[in-house]
Write a structure and sequence with these properties.
CATH topology of the largest domain: Aminopeptidase
Order of helices and strands: EHEEEEHEHEEEHHEHEEHEHEE
Mean pLDDT: 92
Shape: globular
Low-confidence stretches: none
Amino acid sequence: MMMMGVVSVREFDPSRDRESVEAVERICDVGPSGKLSLFTDLHGDPICRVRNSPTFLMLLAEIGQETVGMIRGCIKTVTCGKKRNKLPIYTKLAYILGLRVSPNHRRMGIGLKLVRKMEEWFRDNGAEYAYMATEKDNVASVNLFTHKCGYNKFRTPCILVNPVFAHPLKTFSNKVAIIRLAPVEAEFLYRSKFATTEFFPRDVDAVLNHRLTLGTFLAVPRGYTWPGESARFLAGPPASWALLSVWNCKDVFTLQVKGASRVKKTLVRTTRAVDRALPWLRLPSVPDFFRPFGFHFLYGLGGEGPEAHKMLRALCAFAHNLAKDRGCEVVATEVSSREPLRCAIPHWKMLSCEEDLWCIKRLGEDYSDGSLGDWTKSPPGFSIFVDPREV
């Protein structure tokens, strides 16, 4: 049995810790022999997946001078319910991601120590709840958080992933018009219609104005005239409409599938070649996942009316074509398993996750905005708002 020295935890220092962090990331990304594994390239920025949040921190665990683990966390204010007057109830929420422990130092309590140190920082900064996301089949992660750290299984959203083909998709332009909204109009529409949705960020304006948001797009029936501002649109909306926003993950990090056989790689190349040569056939080509690839994340999906599904499908096709033009291989989103518009979102089952797992923990006794009770015990709503800054 390996003898363990004293484990110390300190804040990540980008001026001297990048190489040691990347080394641990590479070790942790090694998949089973002979099986496909997904690798993440953080482009030399270990905090890239949290740095766009309002408040964030990364901690390292060390034994002597050796980095043996890490954890990332961020804090924001989100909707956790609604008042009787239908106004949102806000809470300060923390998010844990990127927990890694070197394979040679697991089962020594390092992960638990990192989580507890991060929770101390959450409490010091006024967070009332903390949550994390993991695959439901990740037994080690689920056990750590639910059995040792006091988290409860909370929500089971769906991650829906669609490949980007070599040919553009039809956007039903003869029946649907797609309008790009200015950030201020997008903000007004989101706050008016979705502010009481679970996990809706109070600083949604910061998200919509961020350089990684490529735009917010509204689908309406062909022939409808945009009145010029969202307030007038909501005063007399069309019978059906839908909207979504697009976040550019490609400029933050890229993914790569490793461990594929030559046969699988050849099959992928063949489908892409045929799709490029014969685009009118609209064959379902497979993206080249075996080299680094980027993706776009769709957030803020919603709509109203009997044909909202049709409107959302047109928006998803538009987003696919935008991703194709920008060199991405995948378009992804995450929605509640109860989302009414879920069936309108195109995706490949083999690439998607039907049941992601979010676990939550109550950190404090006081609440920042009204009396909600314990959010961890509240029933799920039909929709959630997934913040792209945490993808």
